[in-house]
User: Fold this.
Amino acid sequence: MILWSVANATPRGDARLKFLTTLVEQARAQDSTRLITAALETHYADLKTIVVEDPLGKYLDVVSCNEYIGWYDGLPDKIDTITWQTPYEKPFVLSEFGADAQVDRHGDDLARFTEEYQANVYRRQVAMFRRIPFLNGTIAWVLVDFRSPRRPLAGVQDFFNRKGLYSDRGERKAAFFVLRDYYRSMESK
Assistant:
């Protein structure tokens, strides 16, 4: 483990900020060797600009947020138009990103829950990552499909979160190769 995270996309507010800054202080007191982060709330400054300026960011070592453009937020082509801003001059990580796909479900790249759709989202996200000059890291959500009672769509989800790069049976999805190639391209830099 390289980071302590104190929150994941919690709604902004005074009580939350007070509680989480206390939690940050306690984490630092108990382990001064690890950086502290949280998946922060974001907002749109306009239709194409996402801003990460959650007040909790002031107290963190690493600023991060979750990003699901093309899945929960618009269609995949929206990813091509997005720019990012933050006032924080700290390391920035996209702490979650991705889209669902059922392994061996195929269709065109706009057919939700297909491997083609998921790979399309990943290709566009990777291109977007390259356009964020202050981006320091990414974490795909998630490596392997996992059981989730909140995913009941019969014949597709069947009580699994299908955002994995691998199926629950260990089969690689097309998006795995998109992300693998992106990370390999970063090795040469």
Remarks:
- Residues 4 and 27 are 8 Å apart (CA to CA).
